[in-house]
């Protein structure tokens, strides 16, 4: 190697022995130093700006009164967090330091966040409670009454804990009911989402379906720390409890534990066992009350019967005897029976006299005269009817002609319609004429039938019909004989029977009983 003398100062200046780094090499070196020095650390500070883009990652700041550190939690880490950081919270973040070479800054990759003491949790809880109360989720007017004796009870709790056993045991002791259990996680990251989903799932059950819809819900969990019960303080659980259409009983923790679901529930129970007691009454007590009421009812009915029986006896003593009550009506009845018997006889006699009087006036001459009068009246009515029909036809014709003359101008304007109406009028006129002719014929036929009926009556009442019934007419010297004396005076007698006449001997004198061997005289 040749040595170059550059002592005259005209060549390049000496560079020393410091190494040269690229930007990426320097950024990587800084990254390794920071990550190696701060592998796993816990940082306490106040949460500043919080951002959650659609990717699911969370970006926020941790700050105190002098400095700010950028922090980030990836989507999987956010899902595992028990407490989500909110702006203004004082937290202890656990994670590791790293750098972001793209922007030449360092940041904290946060794996978990915990409130910085119970005071911070209580402050956050109070802030959330005030916000939800301002929305009206805790108003007393929204509370629904708990049914007195539900048929189906839905329980939201862990299926493996002592809570569900206590609830089932208490229900079995007090009043066994059908219980539906919706298993959920009662603490941890998945607690809030599962409890809210269980409440909404019970409300989604349709009445009358294959799965019975609960009449009341119990959300239960045993006691624990504030962090263990934090899932029941989440907003999603509170909103699900407030929006439940099924009455809900909150039984989270012991009597001294208070969560936000207690304010949104329709009823708060101090313990899960107390929730079971609030849900159903004691069956034995109900049976005892029912038995006592039944005994009171039996005693009341018995006393009522006794009082009414005594009242009836008292009223019966004030009433008269039955014989006394019916004696007077019985006498009136007997008198009416006697008067009825005599009255019926008198009425029958009076009817007989009236019949005989009327029958005496019914003679053939009267019947003939009546038939003649009826015939004359029928003939006169027929003549009047014929004249009336002709007169009515003439009047209708004249009226029709007059109307036709008056309607001539209108007929000229409405020729087609007038022709149709004229045809209809003539048709009706013809129908009326036919009806008049038919009416006269029917009237004559009815009168003829009546005349024929009267003639049959005359024939029935005449002496010919009487002869057919076994009677005979005796004529003496051509006249009708109605007495014995007239028959003895007649020179010749003639007897008319139903089928002819028979002549007998002349004047018939009486003979004595000794004239004949038989001792009997002649017939007349």
Ordered list of secondary-structure elements with their pairings:
Layout: H1 23-37, E1 41-51, E2 58-63, E3 68-73, H2 75-80, E4 90-100, E5 105-115, H3 118-134, E6 152-157, H4 162-174, E7 178-183, H5 191-204, E8 216-221, H6 235-242, E9 248-252, H7 260-264, E10 267-268, H8 272-279, H9 283-318, H10 322-361, H11 364-406, H12 408-413, H13 415-461, H14 463-468, E11 473-476, E12 479-480, H15 484-489, E13 493-497, E14 500-504
Task: Offer a quick outline of the entry.
With 524 residues, this protein is an alpha/beta fold. Helices cover 52% and strands 16% of the residues.
Describe the structure in your own words.
The structure is a single chain. The chain has 524 residues and is α/β, with parallel strands linked by helices. The protein has four domains: 23-116, Nucleic acid-binding proteins (OB fold (Dihydrolipoamide Acetyltransferase, E2P)); 124-281, Rossmann fold (3-Layer(aba) Sandwich); 364-461; 473-504, no CATH class. 52% of the residues lie in helices and 16% in strands. It has helices spanning 23-37, 75-80, 118-134, 162-174, 191-204, 235-242, 260-264, 272-279, 283-318, 322-361, 364-406, 408-413, 415-461, 463-468, 484-489; strands at 41-51, 58-63, 68-73, 90-100, 105-115, 152-157, 178-183, 216-221, 248-252, 267-268, 473-476, 479-480, 493-497, 500-504. Strands 1-2-3-5-4 form a five-stranded mixed β-barrel. A five-stranded parallel beta sheet has the order 7-6-8-9-10, with helices on both faces. A hairpin with a 4-residue loop joins β4 (90-100) and β5 (105-115). The longest helix is centred in the C-terminal third of the chain and has 47 residues, at 415-461.
